[in-house]
Amino acid sequence: MAEAFALLTDRRLLAAGGELFELALQKINGTYAFNLTDPKAVLAASPSLVSYLAEKNLLNNLIYVGMPHCPASSVGQIHVDGKCAEAINFPVLNCADSDYVWFDAKVKDTHFRQATLGHTATSGIAEYRLCDADTAKEITRVSCAQPVWFNTHIPHCGVNRSLSSRVVATLRFNVKLDTNDL
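Above: the chain's sequence. Below: its structure in token form.
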């Protein structure tokens, strides 16, 4: 089976989470939402992220930034993402008691669903398909408090055990990522 995640140890990703705190507060709305976020606003708010992406030659390859909000004491739907098979995810708000969880599960959707920004459908940039949760078997998990390279084509979800909302940042690129270079 393909690798689900790789830990990323560059401290600038943790610093970026702190720099995006104010932006993250705008994303908390009481329900789960993927929250596509203007990449220019994210980069303007986070010099640490700009430094990291520039050094890794990823700054000009950034397609979109999501800031998924996971409400207190919740489990997201098991799904696979669409176009981008890889992501860089890092913690932004209340991530200590949350995990990313990957599963061996069958995709049940035949067509991609569109992620939304508030109530407005995106233009196909952020797509996903739901998986059959009834037969899913957990294969691995990692804390959302840890920056990671993330395989979005393996069925996965977020689990928030905290009594507070959780927000992470997820970055998608138009190039293949090499975990040895991250």
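Confidence is low (pLDDT under 50) at residues 118-122.
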